[in-house]
Description:
Elements: H1 4-8, H2 14-17, E1 50-57, E2 64-70, E3 93-98, H3 106-110, H4 123-133, E4 138-142, E5 146-148, E6 152-154, E7 160-161, E8 167-168, H5 175-190, E9 210-216, H6 220-235, H7 240-243, E10 246-252, H8 267-275, E11 279-284, H9 286-289, H10 295-310, E12 316-319, H11 328-337
Parallel strand pairs: 3-4, 3-9, 9-10, 10-11, 11-12
Antiparallel strand pairs: 1-2, 2-4, 5-6, 7-8
Protein name: Chromosome 2 open reading frame 69
GO cellular component, one term: mitochondrion
Region (Disordered): 23-47, 71-91
Amino acid sequence: xxxxxxxxxxxxxxxxxxxxxxxxxxxxxxxxxxxxxxxxxxxxxxxxxxxxxxxxxxxxxxxxxxxxxxxxxxxxxxxxxxxxxxxxxxxxxxxxxxxxxxxxxxxxxxxxxxxxxxxxxxxxxxxxxxxxxxxxxxxxxxxxxxxxxxxxxxxxxxxxxxxxxxxxxxxxxxxxxxxxxxxxxxxxxxxxxxxxxxxxxxxxxxxxxxxxxxxxxxxxxxxxxxxxxxxxxxxxxxxxxxxxxxxxxxxxxxxxxxxxxxxxxxxxxxxxxxxxxxxxxxxxxxxxxxxxxxxxxxxxxxxxxxxxxxxxxxxxxxxxxxxxxxxxxxxxxxxxxx
Length: 338
């Protein structure tokens, strides 16, 4: 994550900015209801089970995100058939990943000379990495809907944000509702069996559906917003069945350009998370939590863990690469190591 503060103070982040570049731009829409055979390959040479879904609508037509779907190993391809028998086991288990700054589709990153060295962290490569980490699950990578200066990921469909992607959290923005609608529309367009029914409908959550949420760097702002919304969402009869299917949430080296609220530290808000039954995991590196220019990040991470423990939760925590100098490379490597 690149902070706006550093840009403002003598643009001291210029060395980082030179190696952190990606292309923004909203892709053209595709008609709904497409089958996997109608969507183009995620990138040349990518496995057929890796599929890009462009401009998928969320909680309202003005909120759209591109999605990247990696199907589980040996999961058969379907085209929206309602006659196929239900698969048991892992057929309806999913991981959703929210990426950080610079990360984009492979060909977008390759257009930027400074971004070529970071192609190993493109969205396609991250999806494949997560597929190895969660081989029995569908992996969804949610592309940020805006990239300011071709660097700063902005998740303004999930949380109120400034141009650099720094969030303004509130309990009622609608991140859960947007995610649920994205998955419903994405599963339908990809032709997955037993997709989530449209929000607001009478159909229940499909049997066997479960969800893991993973945020990396800037992508953790989406997880934080969901924590702020959790009390209201659990009380909402339309959202609570969806919330109940979330088994784990992973924060991977969270960071954003604001001067606070990198981690949630409001005790009342965290009380809801602690009582939710969701397994909480934090994986950090010195790049974020040991930076003297952003000392609040490490302090807030410590408070996040301590408050949850005081509330009776048992969050797992790990500091990776503790004995190595802070680096962007190790910041990214936490995606492989968690």
